[in-house]
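Reopening this ticket.

The earlier resolution said the output was attached, but the attachment link was broken on my side. Pasting everything inline this time so it's all in one place.
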Amino acid sequence: MLKNVSFFIHYVFKICYDDYGYEMIEDEKKGNIVATSALNISLPIYNEDKSLSFKKVADFMGINEAHILKIAPISKSALSRHVTQNTIRKMQPLLHLLNLLWDLSEGDKAQVRQWLSHPRIEWRGLTPIDLLEQGKIDELIRFLDGLIEGEAMGA
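Inline output:
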């Protein structure tokens, strides 16, 4: 009996990877993501039921909820309703960035907020929030990946 269940699961769900290397399990019949390895429960952006909270994301970043609309590719109505898997997929780059910052700051929310709001020489006095508003999230992620790689190399 278990073999049939296992076969059914492999047939209905497929494992795929997003652009940031996170494993996602997709329901092939419905076309939505049913699980993702990007969920870092220690990151203080989730509700008790492990659902993403835009209010907590905004608080974590030191911005207001309306500001998220300038940063994330989501609709205004997405802020007020239950977060769908499609929204999670759209938020994946931002979640990845927040995970990197959380890890680099060793779980220090104040340090994450400061980094996001502090003008940086690397970006001619712009803040990381400014870059997010300009849609340059990949540039921020590459920068943070370089910091992590440097730490791993002992630099």
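Reporter confirms the inline version is readable. Residues 1-15 have pLDDT under 50 and may be disordered. Residues 30 and 117 are 39 Å apart (CA to CA).
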